């Protein structure tokens, strides 16, 4: 089973993006190798749906978090060694020797730099292998990946390599043939394993530094999402909230004023669900969830001028996409923020009420739907719906937002008070 999401959801939750300083990817992107970065991106693009696999990956991150270790090289040094090992040489020793002597000769005659590049790449690799050997010897915990690195480095063919501090031309020939020829497969496995360890260390360091917790995955049939102390991972001092949905109460109907924190809360929930399916740490104290088949959000739906879509029509199309998946039997997490903003209040009321009631009848999905139209909540069926709001506390004429989830439907109606406080009408007066 594949975990399905789409571009709109990824953008709503700001999950991906190496060059976005505030993306969730970049929160965890503290790796020291290019291969580790590629592996990390692969984890982000392919969430898991097998509870055992999710829990196993969580256990790995927990173990590394307790180990508190660091890889013994800089990214630049590893890149030099990896660039060297990524190229091949002939399996025949004489052909390697002829190639090296030719490079050496040309370096003295024509200032050809290929021998120098070969020498520096080999020396960087020799240094890296020595550093990794020392690193493995220092790690006391029983970790399969680190044990694999240690076994590869214990190969008797590498014995002479460990004694080298400078390299003669004969050394360059012998070790180049060994590392990039005879042991090419072993070196490839070594690099791939270092990439994995790099990701494990980076992600567990982030979890430790930011006090993230770990989620426990349950079978899909349980239809549960229970989170204690949920917060947005990008906010250092975020207010934490508890969140619980199950098949008996599968819809959270969320109200609250603008700036009260509804969108941030919903994004925090969506991000936690996504990271939990990756087996990654989550910004929460504790989380138990049943795996889902996908995640859909509708938070920042753009219009589409090329296709002639208004904002309202784009919203309708988005809801239609989700409805098709839900009615087809998919077990999803669905997050709708301020449905049907692009139409008049009467139509928005009717549509929000109808859509919320219709979706909630599909008990194998879990939903959060927010709105400003609090009258919808009063008309919704109460049998499988949880009502919550984010309060606004007025201190005189100044609103203060607690960001603390409360049970019920908001009675806050402070829009005109804020407009008057900001002097908007006076400016036009």
UniProtKB/TrEMBL annotation:
It comes from the Bacteria. Keywords: ATP-binding, DNA-binding, Nucleotide-binding. SMART domains: MUTSac (SM00534). The keyword Ion transport does not apply. Residues 249-429 form the DNA mismatch repair proteins mutS family domain. Pfam families: MutS_III (PF05192), MutS_V (PF00488). PANTHER family: DNA MISMATCH REPAIR PROTEIN, DNA MISMATCH REPAIR PROTEIN MUTS FAMILY MEMBER. This is DNA mismatch repair protein. It comes from Chitinophaga horti. The lineage of its organism: Bacteria, Pseudomonadati, Bacteroidota, Chitinophagia, Chitinophagales.
């Amino acid at each position: 089973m594949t975990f399905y999401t789409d571009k709109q959801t990824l953008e709503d939750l700001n999950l991906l993006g190496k060059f976005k300083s505030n993306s969730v990817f970049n929160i965890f992107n503290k790796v020291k190798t290019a291969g580790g970065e590629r592996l990390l991106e692969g984890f982000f693009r392919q969430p898991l749906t097998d509870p055992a696999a999710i829990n196993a990956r969580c256990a790995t991150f927990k173990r590394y978090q307790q180990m508190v270790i660091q890889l013994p090289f800089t990214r630049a040094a590893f890149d030099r060694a990896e660039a060297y090992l990524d190229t091949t040489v002939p399996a025949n020793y004489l052909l390697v020797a002829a190639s090296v002597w030719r490079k050496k000769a040309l370096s003295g005659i024509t200032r050809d730099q290929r021998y120098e590049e070969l020498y520096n790449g080999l020396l960087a690799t020799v240094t890296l292998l020595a550093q990794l050997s020392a690193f493995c010897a220092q790690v006391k915990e029983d970790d399969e990946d680190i044990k694999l690195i240690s076994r590869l480095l214990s190969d008797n063919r590498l014995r002479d390599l460990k004694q080298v501090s400078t390299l003669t031309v004969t050394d360059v020939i012998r070790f180049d043939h060994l590392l990039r020829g005879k042991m090419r497969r072993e070196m490839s496995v070594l690099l791939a394993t270092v990439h994995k360890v790099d990701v494990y260390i980076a992600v567990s360091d982030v979890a430790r530094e930011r006090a993230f917790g770990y989620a426990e995955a349950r079978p899909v049939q349980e239809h549960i999402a229970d989170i204690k102390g949920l917060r947005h991972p990008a906010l250092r001092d975020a207010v934490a909230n508890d969140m619980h949905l199950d098949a008996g109460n599968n819809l959270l109907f969320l109200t609250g004023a603008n700036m009260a924190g509804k969108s941030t809360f919903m994004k925090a929930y969506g991000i936690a669900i996504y990271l939990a399916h990756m087996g990654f740490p989550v910004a929460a104290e504790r989380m138990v969830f049943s795996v889902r088949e996908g995640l859909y959000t509708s938070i920042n739906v753009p219009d589409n001028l090329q296709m002639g879509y208004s904002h309202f029509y784009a919203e309708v199309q988005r809801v239609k996409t989700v409805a098709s998946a839900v009615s087809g039997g998919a077990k999803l997490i669905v997050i709708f923020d301020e449905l049907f903003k692009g139409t008049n209040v009467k139509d928005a009321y009717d549509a929000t009420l109808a859509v919320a009631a219709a979706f909630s009848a599909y008990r194998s999905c879990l939903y959060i739907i927010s709105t400003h139209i609090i009258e919808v909540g009063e008309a919704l069926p109460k049998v499988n719906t949880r009502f919550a709001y984010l309060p606004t506390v007025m201190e005189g004429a100044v609103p203060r937002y607690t960001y603390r989830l409360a049970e019920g439907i908001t009675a806050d109606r402070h829009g005109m008070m804020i407009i008057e406080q900001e002097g908007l009408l006076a400016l036009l007066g």
